[in-house]
Specification:
CATH class: Alpha Beta
Largest sheet: 9 strands, mixed
Oligomer: single chain
Number of strands: 13
Radius of gyration: 18 Å
Order of helices and strands: EEHEEHHEEHEEEHEHEEEH
CATH superfamily: Gcn5-related N-acetyltransferase (GNAT)
Number of domains: 1
């Protein structure tokens, strides 16, 4: 079994998984082993390469088999890219079968610097966010197994993510939220254009946080009058206080339109702070 590299920050005790980063010197209560959070669900950070492989197999199943993404053939039936080795990998398991049923990957500020940037940098010009990078993490590759798409899995993931942010003094999360291009059996950008035109009216960030897509979806040339709701994950982000940072980029490999989104811990509504038992200022 291959151990993952040492934790991101040198101050981290070696015995902790990569996802732990460092703790305050007076904090001896946090347990990073998988823990049961709701009945038959466990959440924890990957500590070994084989656990990361489990997440990559789930990602392949969702992105390639369900969504038709064209993924590099680095390893058969695994979704692997160059950022994976720099990321912390969060896993939700079925406590009975121990199968990974949900995952996120998290790129911390230090690791983003080592990687030369974030995945979002490849899709958007993030120049206006440069002053935030030291306290900003990137979330990516979020997915849940088709048989477990209920609120419990995603809430377990979010709870662990906000705990991670709180514990490590980080305050901003960014990422690309995907909108499938397939609609009524046709590949079209109309759905993404319609969702963008809705959200720019209600959830657009302040101008100082706006970013520009490197491969823009031609939203103004598409039918943006469809009465359609955003995907469930995007609606969830919005309920957590997230903002849209600009128009979507087109990702031809994943066959999606990607919305740049930002979530700041200070914007988390009180009811979710209580739910996640957070001590955020």
């Amino acid at each position: 079994m291959k151990e993952l590299p040492n934790p991101t920050f040198a101050l981290s005790p070696v015995k902790l998984p990569r996802g732990s980063l460092h703790r305050g010197s007076n904090d001896h209560t946090v347990d990073f082993l998988p823990r049961r959070v709701q009945g038959s669900i466990q959440v924890g950070w990957a500590k070994h390469q084989d656990e990361v492989r489990e997440a990559q197999r789930l990602r392949y199943s969702v992105f390639a088999n369900e969504m038709g993404a064209r993924l590099p053939k680095t390893l058969a039936e695994h979704d692997i890219d160059l950022f994976d080795d720099y990321c912390e990998h969060l896993l939700v398991r079925d406590a009975l079968t121990e199968q990974v049923i949900g995952t996120y990957r998290v790129l911390t500020p230090a690791q983003a610097e080592r990687a030369g940037g974030t995945y979002s940098d490849t899709e958007f010009d993030l120049t206006r966010l440069r002053d935030m990078r030291q306290r900003m993490v990137e979330l990516g590759r979020s997915c849940v197994h088709v048989d477990h798409r209920h609120g419990g899995v995603i809430m377990a993931l979010w709870g662990a993510l906000f705990e991670f942010m709180d514990r490590n003094g980080l305050d901003t999360m960014i990422g690309c939220a995907s909108i499938p291009m397939l609609h009524n059996g046709l590949v079209t950008g109309d759905v993404a254009a319609s969702i963008w035109h809705q959200l720019r009216q209600s959830h657009l960030a302040e101008i100082q946080y706006h970013v520009r897509p490197r491969l823009p979806l031609p939203v103004d040339e598409l039918d943006h009058g469809l009465s359609i709701e955003p995907p469930a994950l995007i609606k969830g982000y919005l309920r957590l206080g997230a903002k849209v940072l600009g128009a979507p980029a087109w990702d031809p490999d994943f066959n999606t339109a990607d919305l740049p989104m930002m979530m700041r811990t200070s914007d988390l509504p009180a009811r979710y702070r209580k739910h996640f038992s957070m001590g955020l200022a």
